[in-house]
Design a protein that fits this description.
Length: 362
């Protein structure tokens, strides 16, 4: 499966037994990662080590960036207005309820010696509903403007507003995205120096990064790139511009990078940088490239990633990827092609048949 992910799969080497201050041996660094160069050290030193990060430069027109920021800004202003109106009307109610606890006479007081069970039950239900509704309004709905203004713990309390106040609207902006929960298993461990990635973890990392770094995707402005796998790191983006302003970093050095903390060292993968392949890998990788590029030209690159995920899953199951499972996987691929309206005969002719597909290497 070393070649099943596109250009060339990751290759985990021997586990490193070096001290934290020592760099891991080159053989222990998974391809295509490398140790971060000195130019990136000031930036990575500001990052927490518990996430995978990807960076690129947003060169969208400033007017587009302003429009993209205006939408959440207006939305949060509206939400704050709703919260203020609700607080204005709710405050007297809660004040009366609190006063009632201290046995002061209010319109919310219920005398159990006089009231029947229906009145008591009605009071309990109505007040419970009131509190649950206000909880939803202030805590759940209120979390949007709270995080927009104040940020959150993962963002080190820098939100979108703080990011724009620090950076403004520039012609070139650094966009830093942080992996969501999917990356936690890759970075956890009692002793990270002694933990190397398994094949399926290496594949997972590649399959999460590559789609998120497609040029057709990153051409969008930064605020449009939030999805189920990646979140924007507003603090990291602010730090990147601060370091650039101080002359300690260059924005161009942060173009199309994946960053991960592995074996007590920061590693970098320049995602779209050409990788020199060994002669033994050229034939297989050429087939993989044809497979992917043909699907991309047809606007069906999602089939490629779904196929790789399927192969990854099957190879990780007990018994391995045996002939029966290969036939079933091939039928599933044919079904996906048919559902997407791809002419199968022309497709297979275009890539030279099924031999050499990811998961079917000889």
């Amino acid at each position: 499966m070393a070649r099943s992910a596109g250009k060339r799969g990751f290759k985990s080497g021997a586990r490193s037994n070096t001290t934290p201050a020592s760099a891991p041996a080159p053989s222990s660094i998974p391809e295509p990662f490398r140790l971060v160069p000195s130019a990136l050290v000031p930036f990575v030193s500001t990052l927490p080590t518990d996430h995978v990060y990807i960076t690129h430069l947003d060169r969208s027109p400033v007017s587009v960036k302003k429009q993209a920021f205006l939408v959440p800004l207006i939305l949060n202003i509206i939400i704050i207005g709703i919260l203020c109106v609700r607080a204005y009307y709710a405050a007297p109610i809660y004040l009366s309820l609190i006063i009632t606890v201290f046995h002061y006479e209010t319109s919310y007081q219920v005398d159990p010696s006089v009231a029947d069970k229906g009145d008591i039950l009605s009071a309990i239900v109505s007040r419970t509903f009131l509190m649950m509704t206000d909880y939803a309004i202030f805590w759940l709905l209120g979390s949007w403007p709270r995080e927009f203004i104040l940020g959150s713990i993962p963002n080190r309390f820098v939100g979108p507003l703080g990011w724009k106040m620090n950076v403004g609207f520039e012609e070139t902006e650094v966009i830093v995205r942080r992996g969501r929960k999917w990356d936690s298993g890759l970075l956890e461990g009692v002793d990270d120096r002694n933990r190397s990635w398994a094949v399926d973890e290496e594949l997972l990392l590649k399959f999460k990064i590559e789609p998120a770094m497609r040029k057709s995707y990153t051409i969008k402005t930064g605020l449009s790139l939030l999805d189920k796998d990646w979140d924007l790191d507003y603090c990291a983006m602010s730090d990147a511009h601060r370091l650039a302003a101080d002359g300690r970093a260059k924005l161009e050095d942060l173009q199309e990078l994946a960053l991960v903390y592995y074996h007590k060292q920061w590693l970098v993968w320049r995602v779209h940088e050409a990788i020199e392949l060994p002669v033994t890998d050229i034939e297989g990788d050429t087939k993989v490239r044809k497979f992917r590029e043909t699907l991309t030209d047809l606007g069906r690159e999602d089939i490629f990633f779904r196929w790789i995920e399927m192969i990854q899953y099957e190879t990780s199951q007990p018994g391995g990827f045996v002939e029966g499972k290969k036939a079933e996987a091939l039928r599933e691929l044919q079904r996906m092609l048919t559902n997407k309206g791809v002419d199968e005969e022309r497709f297979w002719d275009g890539i030279g048949g099924q031999k050499g597909l990811p998961g079917f290497e000889e």
